[in-house]
């Protein structure tokens, strides 16, 4: 691209979180090929007229995250009239309908959040199978060797059951396979042939719960999936398994999970809860067989910067005719 043909890109900001996505390196990368219009880390909402004026002549919108994106309506986009591409760096579901109504291409510009959640999921499985947190606790309490210290498993000798083969579930499947695990999955919207291409065997949900040493949830919250895991389903989880949830707590009956975990039959690693932040008196805070994290599976500064970097590369490829 020549300077005269540089696309004009409007960065839709997310207030104080702007810097999490756009450090100096990312700003320089975007400016190297685009004429940039940016309001930086402003905290104020804009009127439709003001937003149209700021975006006037822009060829693309870089949406850093979902905050305040509902101000970019179809009417705003039509009034601007020049936008060819909306690129989402992180989440931005509010833009989908507006882009469709305005007949503007919308793309997910980054896979960083998917990779972050997949990394957390594999880490949770490894901790559970190798019992790292158990050994840490007993050694710090004075045990010499934490016996029986050899009664642990290997992830590469494990069957991992993935509930939901969307973008994150599929990425997790590939990660687990790379480490030698056998992966089975439940997803009513996938065919066995499609799952086979991923190297995964589809099974009924009950079979997945019975057969898996690691059970990981990656289902979306829909009317069909809300509270789909209850007393009966948790009773099917095999003894010694590791139950992992980085999706949403709405997928199961949390009191039923707590009751089953109190039996000590299996352990859990959980990142999302019915109430967040997790109340100080919540049972999970004192259960030794439960590892909890504060909704950070897919949320950290390194991930956000990668979101910005990958989205910028996606915009560049689009205007060079190399992508999407």
Strand arrangement across the biggest beta sheet: 8-7-6-9-10-11-12
What is the helix content?
Answer: 25-40%
Shape type = elongated
Average pLDDT works out at: 95
CATH superfamily of the largest domain: NAD(P)-binding Rossmann-like Domain
Going by CATH, the architecture of the largest domain would be 3-Layer(aba) Sandwich
| Total number of helices | 13
Strand content: 5-15%
What is the count of distinct domains? Answer: 2
Distance N to C terminus: 17 Å
Question: What is the CATH C level class of the largest domain, in words?
Answer: Alpha Beta
Query: What's the Cα radius of gyration?
Result: 23 Å
Broad structural category = alpha/beta
Describe this structure in words.
The chain has helices at 18-21, 24-31, 48-55, 74-80, 94-101, 112-130, 132-140, 167-178, 192-197, 205-211, 231-236, 254-261, 301-319, and strands at residues 8-12, 35-38, 60-63, 85-88, 105-108, 159-163, 182-186, 201-202, 214-217, 242-245, 267-270, 290-292. With 324 residues, it is α/β, with parallel strands linked by helices. It folds into 2 domains: 3-108 and 302-319, NAD(P)-binding Rossmann-like Domain (Rossmann fold); 113-292, NAD(P)-binding Rossmann-like Domain (Rossmann fold, 3-Layer(aba) Sandwich), CATH 3.40.50.720. A 7-stranded parallel β-sheet has the order 8-7-6-9-10-11-12, with helices on both faces. Helix 3 packs across helix 4, helix 6 (112-130) packs across helix 8 (167-178) and helix 6 runs antiparallel to helix 13 (301-319). The longest helix is centred in the middle third of the chain and has 19 residues, at 112-130.
């Amino acid at each position: 691209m020549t300077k005269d043909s540089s696309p004009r890109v409007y960065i839709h900001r997310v207030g104080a979180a702007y810097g999490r996505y756009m450090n100096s390196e990312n700003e320089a990368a975007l400016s190297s090929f685009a004429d940039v219009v940016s309001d930086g880390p402003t905290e104020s909402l804009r009127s439709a007229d003001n937003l149209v004026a700021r975006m006037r002549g822009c060829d693309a919108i870089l949406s850093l995250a979902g905050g305040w994106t509902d101000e970019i309506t179809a009417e705003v986009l039509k009034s601007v009239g020049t936008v060819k591409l909306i690129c989402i760096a992180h989440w931005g579901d509010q833009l989908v309908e507006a882009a469709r109504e305005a007949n503007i291409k919308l793309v997910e510009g980054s896979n960083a959040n998917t990779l972050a959640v997949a990394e957390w999921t594999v880490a949770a499985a490894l901790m559970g199978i190798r019992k790292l947190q158990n050994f840490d606790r007993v050694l710090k309490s004075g045990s010499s060797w934490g016996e029986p210290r050899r009664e642990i498993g290997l992830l590469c000798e494990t069957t991992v059951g993935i509930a939901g083969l969307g973008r994150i579930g599929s990425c997790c499947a590939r990660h687990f396979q790379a480490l030698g695990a056998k992966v089975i999955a439940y997803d009513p919207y996938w065919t066995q042939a499609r799952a086979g291409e991923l190297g995964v065997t589809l099974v009924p949900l009950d079979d997945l719960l019975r057969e898996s040493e690691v059970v990981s949830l990656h289902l979306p919250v829909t009317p069909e999936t809300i509270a789909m895991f209850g007393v009966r389903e948790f009773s099917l989880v095999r003894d010694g398994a590791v139950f992992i949830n980085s999706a949403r707590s709405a997928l199961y009956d949390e009191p039923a999970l707590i009751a089953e975990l109190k039996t000590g039959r299996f352990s859990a690693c959980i990142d999302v809860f019915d109430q967040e932040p997790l109340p100080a008196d919540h049972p999970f805070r004192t259960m030794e067989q439960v590892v909890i994290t504060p909704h950070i599976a897919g949320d950290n500064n390194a991930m956000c910067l990668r979101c910005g970097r990958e989205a910028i590369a996606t915009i560049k490829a689009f205007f060079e005719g190399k992508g999407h």
